[in-house]
Amino acid sequence: MPTTLVTGASSGIGWELAKQFASGGNDVVLVARSEGKLNELAKQISENQGVNTTVIPIDLAKQDAADQLCDQLGERSIQVDTLVNNAGFGALGKFAELSTDRQTEMLMVNVVSLTRLTRILLPQMLQRGEGGILNVGSIAAYQAGPNMSVYYASKAYVLSFTEGLREEVAGSGVHVTCLEPGATESGFGDDSGMAKLGMFSSSTMSAEAVAKAGYEGYVNDEDVVIPGWKNRLMVTSTSFLPRFATRKLVAKLQDVQ
Ligand SMILES: NC(=O)c1ccc[n+]([C@@H]2O[C@H](COP(=O)([O-])OP(=O)(O)OC[C@H]3O[C@@H](n4cnc5c(N)ncnc54)[C@H](OP(=O)(O)O)[C@@H]3O)[C@@H](O)[C@H]2O)c1
């Protein structure tokens, strides 16, 4: 049975992605900091889907997290067929006022651990000529995001990195897909402060629907999956506007004063 490792599986989109992959017949490795929630999901998945589950609690903001995680996989002789880099968070506020540590941790989780995990696990996938990487970005990737500048930039990185990687491995049998959700019901809205913004709360999708679209897109080897017609419309409209206009629009929508 193939094995899928999902980061950020303790909540929201990651929780639902783990269920999708388990329903598709994958054993799952569940990764996040909240061990209790991961154990709860593992119990649900083994009862309902009957696949093997492994829980690895780890803080992906730590410098050596990706290496430690892969060491633990090695100790348990777990071969990862699919890596789902889903863990991530945002923070609404002015760059010069938000906590320096929180913004650095955001880069560690959203960018550095995602990249390092991919670098460590991809060569085995290429050798086997199967499996792949599903990276969770955001529609924030398509324009700059004043008052959330680091988050938007981190998601622009995820999209660019994923697209570049996809071309590098083309023809190898390895899938590389970017899931680009818009506003989604999960812990993200409250945690980031975005839940209080009209633009966020007016058009949320369920985490289950987002995960289903991401799973199916990955299985079908799609390059980029944007779930929901409203999100696709938003991204398409953005592409017709000059970048100075979209950033001014986002600055208005994300005005924090
Ligand atoms: N919800 C949205 O509106 C939305 C829109 C676009 C993109 N996204 C992206 O979707 C992904 C999933 O977010 P979500 O919406 O499902 O939010 P969520 O419910 O808050 O889940 C975030 C997940 O990331 C994990 N995580 C955060 N910091 C971590 C750390 N230091 N180490 C390990 N795991 C960490 C959390 O686990 P622990 O706290 O247990 O560590 C949790 O499992 C993120 O990459 C987010 O940027 C979300």
Automatic annotation (TrEMBL):
Q: Which UniProt keywords apply?
A: Oxidoreductase
Query: Which species is this record about?
Result: Rubripirellula reticaptiva
Point out the coiled-coil segments of this chain. none
**GO molecular-function term, one example from the UniProt record:** oxidoreductase activity
Stated family: Belongs to the short-chain dehydrogenases/reductases (SDR) family.
For this record, an example GO cellular component is: membrane
Task: Say yes or no: keyword Ribonucleoprotein present.
Answer: no
Annotated SUPFAM superfamilies: NAD(P)-binding Rossmann-fold domains (SSF51735)
* EC number(s) reported in the record: 1.2.1.-
The record's listing under Pfam families reads: adh_short
The protein in question is named Fatty acyl-CoA reductase
